[in-house]
Design goal:
Layout (H helix, E strand, L loop, with lengths): L2 H17 L12 H10 L5 H14 L3 H6 L2 H8 L6 H16 L8 H5 L6 H12 L8 H11 L8 H14 L5 H14 L18 H5 L16 E13 L2 E8 L10 E2 L2 E2 L2 H12 L4 E4 L3 E4 L4 E10 L12 E5 L10 H12 L3
Parallel strand pairs: 1-7
Antiparallel strand pairs: 1-2, 1-4, 2-3, 2-8, 5-7, 6-7
Helix pairs in contact: 1-11, 2-3, 2-8, 8-11, 9-11
Length: 355
């Protein structure tokens, strides 16, 4: 172990004791369940965004058994706006396994936790380290950035050799005592000091030994993933609406569990406007009025999507009924189901007459 590796944990722990975050909601009574939910919510999402979602989620699902027994729609409803909805589906799938196989608690080994749905090595390590003080390194986005900069680990951090080097360094730096404080500390350092843009190097406890700071390579480290051209897709979003302003409803379909917005509810999507109108005439009856609304642009991880909403107003006597995969979503009294955030925003504009 290098001198820098030996000094890393003591410096980090000293900094964390004074400058770290100690009052985050999941730090209060840090059970494996509470830590797990926070770690999943914090993937690709800022702390400030997560806190109110976490509070509502914990109020509704205070433990594993409650989450395992809940309707999926209720879980997705409370996740609406956080994005990456596979996280919510995996969360409940994991809760069901824990309830059925582990008596509603987490197992004690890293391998057993990693075998659960939706939990990788870093999340498993964080659960066991933060809740039980067990020595397991973590390598979330913040830890990757800190370690790559301090130790000068260059290259694409998602490539196998660079990832292996980062894991080796993470293991070398993780202490055998005060593991929970260390784990929270390295996440805090990356989130508040060693940030992606404009890192506050003068405030960092590692600045006298950090390769990036000493060599002026903060923007070079960590390395970037190889860029690929982002594909784009378009679809027509059929807004089939009945009722009058102030008491109207929009037809929704449950999307397939696999794929885009899996398990959420959304207006039907079609490749073209002609296909949407043909479906509407066949399923929805005669349309009294149709109107093209402003397009919705939404960026996913690997592509950009443009939805072109087509508002079609029908009469109250439509024969399309609620079912397992269809429902009429009342804008003035919405049911507790999961919606993609762009659709939720569109419905708010429809409700207020600003669409």
């Amino acid at each position: 172990m290098s001198w820098e590796s030996e000094q890393f944990a003591p410096r980090l722990l000293e900094w964390f004791s004074v400058q770290g975050r100690h009052t985050l909601p999941w730090q209060v009574n840090p059970t494996p369940y509470r830590v797990w939910v926070s770690e999943v919510m914090l993937q690709q999402t800022q702390v400030a965004t997560v806190i109110p979602y976490y509070a509502r989620f914990m109020a509704r699902f205070p433990g594993i058994d409650a989450l395992a027994a809940a309707p999926l729609d209720e879980v997705l409803h409370l996740w609406t706006g956080l994005g990456y909805y596979a996280r919510a589906r995996n969360l409940q799938a994991c809760a069901k396994v824990l309830a059925a196989q582990y008596g509603g608690d987490f197992p004690n080994t890293l391998e057993a936790v990693m075998a659960l749905p939706g939990i990788g090595r870093s999340t498993a390590g964080a659960i066991l380290a933060l809740s039980r003080g067990m020595r397991h390194p973590i390598l979330d986005g913040n830890a990757k950035r800190v370690l790559a900069r301090v130790f000068g680990i260059a290259g694409d951090p998602s490539s196998k050799p660079v990832l292996e080097a980062l894991w080796q360094q993470a293991d070398a730096c993780t202490p055998r005592r005060e593991v929970a404080a260390y784990t929270q500390g390295i996440m805090d350092l990356g989130a508040t000091v060693c940030t992606r843009a404009r890192p506050a190097c003068t405030l960092c406890p590692m600045n006298t030994a950090c390769v990036a700071a000493l060599e002026g390579r903060q923007m070079e480290l960590p390395g970037r993933k190889l860029r690929r051209d982002r594909p784009s897709r378009e679809a027509t979003l059929l807004i089939a609406q009945i009722g009058s302003h102030g008491s109207s409803a929009v037809l929704l379909e449950r999307r397939p569990m696999s794929g885009l917005w899996g398990g959420l509810w959304s207006p039907p999507q079609f490749a073209t406007e002609c296909e949407a109108l043909a479906w509407c005439a066949r399923e929805f009856g005669v349309a009294n009025q149709s109107q093209t609304l402003a397009p919705i642009d939404h960026a996913f991880t690997h592509f950009d999507l443009r939805l072109k909403p087509l508002l079609v107003r029908g009469n109250q006597n439509t024969e399309v009924l609620d079912g397992d995969d269809r429902l009429w979503y009342r804008l003035d009294a919405p049911p507790r189901v999961g919606l993609p955030q762009p659709i939720l925003h569109l419905f708010e504009r429809l409700r207020t007459g600003t669409a």
